[in-house]
Amino acid sequence: MRLRYILSGTLLMLILGTVYSYSVFRGPIQEAYGANHFQSGLPYMVALAFYALFMFFTGKQINRFKPRTVLLSGSALVSIGWISSSFTSNIYALTLTYGVITGAGVGIAYGVPMNVAAKWFPDKKGLAVGLVLVGFGLSPLIMAPVANQIIHAFGIHQAFLLLGVAFAILLSGLSLMFRLPLSQEVERYQVKINKGHSFVSLMTNQMIKERRFAGLYVNYVIGTMMGLMLVGITSIVGIEYVGLSRVQVAGIVAILAIFNGLGRPFFGWLTDRWQTKSAIFLSYAMIFFASLMIVLFGKGHAPVYVISFAIFWFNLGGWLAIAPTATMKHFGATHYSQNYGLIFTAYGLGALLGVSISGYLIDLHGDYTMIFMMNMGLCALGVLLTRVFIKADDV
């Protein structure tokens, strides 16, 4: 019976994760609203920032309300944001509807399926949460081609309306399926804790005084800054820098979503078994290599573009596993919702910095090379900061 919460959570995350398909919308938005690269990135940037902000607020209150109540509230905002976007006439109105309203809705709903899954699977928390999160990462695999077809057939404004109505129906139905287990249902699956194991349990005010908190937070900003920036320009790089068609790029984005999904269990497993800094170093090394490869060989070469962006998407998924796994590992499970809610604000900061800086650089230079060179510099900075804040004696 409890498997239905995994399935429902994965499907719900699949819908919420449509935010990662924004690169499919970006070209049509530039055409419809007469927006430049910086302006067309505003709705995406603000949506990710409000997603992070409202996840933080919801994480502090999530246990005070029934799961379906929180989910229905978040789902309503998501649907309203998409539907109201269909009536916008300029990029700033779209930033309000898609960015603020939809982003807030995603942030409210995001933590609930994970929280419910963890409580229904006390014996397999990591696996249960990981399976639910895969839905968010794999969303573009389904949603990018679907959205692209709808945009092509009906135009950008009608696409917002149709998707908003569909999301209202699907999210509401899925939300009603969630509830927390009763005490006797938890006991059925509860595992005994190994008495010989030592557990750390820090409250948020204690966590922020830790050196490792600073290291994890700053690295999360850098990792998500690079990842969200590159995910947001995937389509326009493919079209303008590599020379692919919009249809070809939409298909590639769908494939890249698989790598985003695979990055989560891989880096979650790695962070749990290796030292946190080792997982961080590996991620930076992969991003540096992919950036160097596309600078040297990527212009006009589709295979290099696909390989490089597969690595970028894989590592964005990776950072969304490194951070929560490291939070649990370093600061304990007791106050995990509040602690990770705070650390997740780094995701919003990374979105603001990454999307705004990339748009500005593209508009200023008219070229994408500077973006990839900046990434290489950020990887070097991340390695240095990790060595300073996350020492060898840290787990």
**Secondary structure: helix percent:** over 70%
Uncertain segments: 192-198
The string of secondary-structure elements, in order, is HHHHHHHHHHHHHHHHH
Give me the count of strands.
0
Number of helices: 17
User: CATH H level of the largest domain: which superfamily?
Assistant: MFS general substrate transporter like domains
Distance between the termini: 37 Å
Report the sheet-strand fraction.
under 5%
Radius of gyration over alpha carbons? Answer: 20 Å
- Named at the architecture level, the CATH assignment of the largest domain is Up-down Bundle
Mean pLDDT: 83
At the first level of CATH, the class of the largest domain is: Mainly Alpha
Taken together, the total number of domains comes to 2
Largest sheet: none
Judged by helices, strands and strand pairing, the structural class is mainly alpha
Shape descriptor: globular
CATH topology heading of the largest domain: Growth Hormone, Chain: A
Can you describe what's shown?
Helix content is 82%, strand content 0%. It has 395 residues and is mainly α. It folds into two domains: 1-189, MFS general substrate transporter like domains (Growth Hormone, Chain: A, Up-down Bundle), CATH 1.20.1250; 199-395, MFS general substrate transporter like domains (Growth Hormone, Chain: A). The longest helix has 30 residues, at 91-120. It is globular, with a radius of gyration of 20 Å. Residues 192-198 have low confidence and may be disordered.
